[in-house]
């Protein structure tokens, strides 16, 4: 890592799971200083009052986001819901600080696509011209130069990485992709709803957003950019009765001949210089990556059905959100990309 004074950063929106995980990673990061953590609803409280696991570690006072505008910062993390982030990006667009937005507000190719899938008018369409999709395994060089990063969704991260080698090499039929994905409850955010009520989740398992989930178009766009042709994805998410983790199983028909050895080599070659993607010889589980920035992928060739099956596992709060944002920050600041991200998965 380059010798450098510590970079000044701020976390806007600290009350949720993502803000908490960002703080956990950044408080231990050797190259940054957390100047501000904001929360409109908890202003004046200590961060550790809101998240007791930080007691004696990060007792910083939560501030109003108004302090951000006049603060000398290098990176601003927006850990806010979609529809709210865009207003901050618009307000902060003239500042020197670079922005990493963890919402969905700038992930798609245009404001028109956003409005169609999110059913919300976009108030800062100009932002789409400069936003870079923050998946480091695919867009590292663009990320390094960007001033606005659209941090990917959790489902799309697992799904795109599971098929990226095949779409990049144009080795699958682009209308044959089916992705069946399951997420832990934290993917729904910190605020409870009838869907996430304990009695509805405990000892239960269900699909939702069938045919309409907004992450579908995010996956389609990114796989389409890799293959340079439209990609049609049948995506079905499911809610698991666990705290955290995503398991995505992707199915696709190959173009031409395929076998297990060829398939494994495609994945190993594509991710050879990507330190946080691990190619497995057996199917991963969510506990294999929990608490870490790793994405574990098992590519399997089913000779009987002439179909590729690619299974990926990530921690939805980390590789699917907070640690991905830190990875993007490392690239933007010219740091070694692994800095502050080498946590070993927690198992059991």
Would you give an account of this structure?
Helices cover 27% and strands 20% of the residues. 46% of the residues are buried. It is an alpha/beta fold and 348 residues long. The chain has 2 domains: 7-151 and 321-333, NAD(P)-binding Rossmann-like Domain (Rossmann fold), CATH 3.40.50.720; 155-314, Dihydrodipicolinate Reductase, domain 2 (2-Layer Sandwich), CATH 3.30.360. Helix 1 crosses helix 10, helix 5 crosses helix 10 and helix 6 packs parallel to helix 8. It has helices at residues 17-27, 47-50, 85-92, 111-118, 136-145, 154-168, 198-201, 215-227, 260-270, 322-332; strands at 7-12, 32-38, 75-78, 98-101, 131-133, 148-150, 177-183, 206-207, 233-239, 246-252, 277-279, 295-302, 307-314. The protein is globular and about 60 Å long. The model has no long low-confidence stretch (mean pLDDT 95). A 7-stranded mixed beta sheet has the order 8-9-7-10-13-12-11.
Secondary-structure blueprint of this entry?
Elements: E1 7-12, H1 17-27, E2 32-38, H2 47-50, E3 75-78, H3 85-92, E4 98-101, H4 111-118, E5 131-133, H5 136-145, E6 148-150, H6 154-168, E7 177-183, H7 198-201, E8 206-207, H8 215-227, E9 233-239, E10 246-252, H9 260-270, E11 277-279, E12 295-302, E13 307-314, H10 322-332
Parallel strand pairs: 1-2, 1-3, 3-4, 4-6, 5-6, 7-9, 11-12
Antiparallel strand pairs: 7-10, 8-9, 10-13, 12-13
Helix pairs in contact: 1-10, 5-10, 6-8
């Amino acid at each position: 890592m380059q010798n450098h004074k510590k970079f000044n950063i701020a976390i806007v929106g600290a009350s949720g799971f993502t803000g908490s995980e960002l703080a956990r990673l950044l408080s231990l990061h050797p190259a940054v200083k957390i100047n501000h953590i904001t929360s409109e609803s908890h202003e004046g409280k200590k961060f550790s009052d809101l998240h007791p696991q930080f007691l004696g570690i990060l007792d910083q006072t939560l501030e109003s986001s108004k302090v951000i505008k006049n603060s000398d910062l290098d990176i601003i993390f927006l850990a806010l819901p979609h529809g709210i982030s865009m207003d901050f990006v618009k307000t902060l667009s003239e500042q020197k600080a670079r922005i990493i937005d963890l919402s969905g507000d700038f992930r798609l190719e245009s404001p028109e696509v956003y409005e169609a899938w999110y059913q919300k008018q976009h108030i800062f369409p100009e932002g789409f011209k400069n936003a870079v999709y923050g998946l480091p395994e695919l867009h590292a060089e663009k990320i390094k130069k960007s001033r606005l990063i659209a941090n990917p969704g959790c489902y799309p991260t697992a799904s795109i990485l599971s098929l990226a080698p095949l779409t990049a090499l144009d080795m699958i039929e682009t209308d044959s992709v089916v992705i069946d994905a399951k997420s832990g409850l934290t993917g729904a955010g910190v605020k409870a709803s009838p869907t996430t009520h304990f009695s509805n989740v405990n000892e239960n398992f269900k699909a939702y957003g069938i045919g309409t989930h907004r992450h579908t178009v995010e996956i389609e766009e990114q796989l389409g950019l890799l293959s340079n042709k439209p990609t049609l994805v049948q995506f079905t998410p499911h809610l698991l009765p666990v705290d955290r983790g995503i398991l995505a199983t992707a199915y696709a028909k190959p173009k031409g001949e395929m076998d297990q050895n060829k398939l494994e080599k495609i994945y190993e070659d594509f991710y050879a210089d990507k330190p946080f993607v691990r190619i497995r010889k057996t199917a991963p589980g969510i506990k294999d990556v929990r608490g870490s920035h790793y994405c574990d992928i098992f590519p399997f060739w089913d000779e009987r059905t002439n179909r590729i099956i690619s299974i990926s596992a990530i921690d939805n709060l980390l590789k699917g959100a907070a640690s991905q944002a830190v990875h993007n920050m490392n690239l933007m600041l010219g740091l070694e990309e692994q800095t502050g991200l080498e946590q070993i998965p927690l198992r059991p």
